[in-house]
Amino acid sequence: MWPLDPSQKEVLRFAVCCRVLTLMLQVLTRFLGSSTPIVYWFPAHLLQDQEPLLKSLETVPWKPLAEDSPPGQKVPRNSIMGLLYNWKTCSLVTQCILGYFLTYWLLGLLLHCNFLPWT
Q1: Residue 105 in contact with residue 12, Cβ under 8 Å?
Q2: Measured between alpha carbons, how far is 45 from 42 in angstroms, rounded to an integer?
Q3: Cβ–Cβ under 8 Å, residues 94 and 47
Q4: What is the DSSP letter of 66?
Q5: Which residues are CB-contacts of 12 (< 8 A; sequence separation ≥ 6)?
Q6: Helices (H), ranges, the chain
Q7: Is 98:90 a contact under the CB 8 Å cutoff?
Q8: Burial class (CB in 10 A: 0-12, 13-18, 19+), 50
Q9: pLDDT at site 95
Q10: What confidence tens digit (pLDDT) does each residue in 89-107 have?
Q11: Cα 17 to Cα 14: distance, rounded to the nearest angstrom
Q12: Residue 115: HSE in the Cβ half-sphere, 13 Å Cα cutoff
């Protein structure tokens, strides 16, 4: 196989450069996504400021647990689940934020399970 002719060297150089660039981008995005809380603080701040359903949770005392609720009625323990149950009444900002995170989660789940690169 060695020595390579010039066209094979260029293809090999291109393949190595593409792989190194891909690895660097994947590692950087994983480090930034997992170790930088600002990525999660900002959407949480927007949700707390602009979502009326979350503001009503602050003023109303703690809701009963799901086990204490009447049959057929769901009482969410988690405020995010409460937002998802009331999707149509949420503000546009809340729908965009929840849609982004749900899409990111679903795409990551599908691509990772199929052995495709996902960062």
Answers
A1: no
A2: 5
A3: yes
A4: G
A5: 4
A6: 6-35, 38-50, 52-59, 79-85, 92-113
A7: yes
A8: middle
A9: 93
A10: 888 999 999 999 999 889 8
A11: 5
A12: 0
